[in-house]
Design a protein that fits this description.
The protein has a 6-stranded parallel sheet, sandwiched between helices. The model has no long low-confidence stretch (mean pLDDT about 85). It folds into 2 domains: about 130 residues, Rossmann fold, CATH 3.40.50; about 80 residues, Winged helix-like DNA-binding domain superfamily/Winged helix DNA-binding domain (Arc Repressor Mutant, subunit A). The longest helix has 17 residues. It is built from 10 helices and 6 strands, in the order E-H-E-H-E-H-E-H-E-H-E-H-H-H-H-H. The chain has about 210 residues and is of the alpha/beta class.
Length: about 210
């Protein structure tokens, strides 16, 4: 256990992805998310007044992509630790990120435990580059397709909201359905996916697979 949790800043312009990352990190006692931003511009502004222990930076963003943002951060703050993430990976990206340099790259399809271990290794001073080939990525996509085929469209919606860290009440409010209906959906999803823990088990499954 560290004397204080490491401070993490997440930059991702997809709110559900950002919320999912926040939920994963929040579950680890040594880590704390101090800021969640949705643009590289916001990150540059933040670093003028705050210095997180680690930046988790999405590669694909609308106003300023992660590569451009990382280059600016590195030029202004040479000691700042940066972990880049992305849904898609191209072999040429590895050389670009190493040249900046950033401390790591982890695909968004990576499982929860690997992500946390990667974050901790970077905070300890290591570089972490997890390279998934196209076959691995395609396998993940096939697994997700198999899972979603077992669930109704409403159940998939609920799993995505669970991944975003929403409570049952928040899900009910967002989908305009009764709280008891959400509870029923959670039970049905757990039964279809053979998940015994309706709370932590569903969240972990949603984060790892959606």
């Amino acid at each position: 256990m560290t004397e204080r949790p490491y401070s993490i800043t997440i930059i991702d312009d997809h709110p559900m992805v950002a919320s999912g990352l926040q939920a994963i990190i929040k579950a680890h006692s040594d880590l704390h998310v101090n800021h969640v931003l949705n643009s590289g511009i916001e990150l540059i502004e933040l670093l003028e007044v705050d210095s997180p222990d680690l930046i988790i930076l999405d590669i694909s963003m609308k106003d300023m992509d992660g590569v451009q943002a990382a280059k600016i951060v590195r030029s202004k703050y040479p000691d700042q630790k940066i972990l880049c993430i992305s849904t898609f990976y191209q072999q040429s990206l590895y050389a670009v990120l190493k040249a900046i340099p950033v401390q790591g790259f982890i695909p968004k399809l990576t499982d929860t435990n690997t992500l946390i271990q990667g974050i901790l290794k970077i905070l300890a001073g290591e570089d972490v580059y997890i390279i998934q080939n196209d076959e691995n990525i395609e396998t993940k996509r096939l697994v997700l397709t198999e899972i979603t085929n077992k669930l109704s469209r409403r159940e998939v919606e609920i799993m995505k909201l669970i991944k975003a860290g929403k409570s049952s009440k928040e899900i009910a409010d967002e989908l305009f359905i009764a709280l008891t209906t959400v509870s029923t959906h959670r039970k049905n999803i757990s039964k279809k996916l053979n998940i015994n823990d309706l709370n932590g088990g569903l969240l972990r499954f949603a984060i790892d697979n959606f």
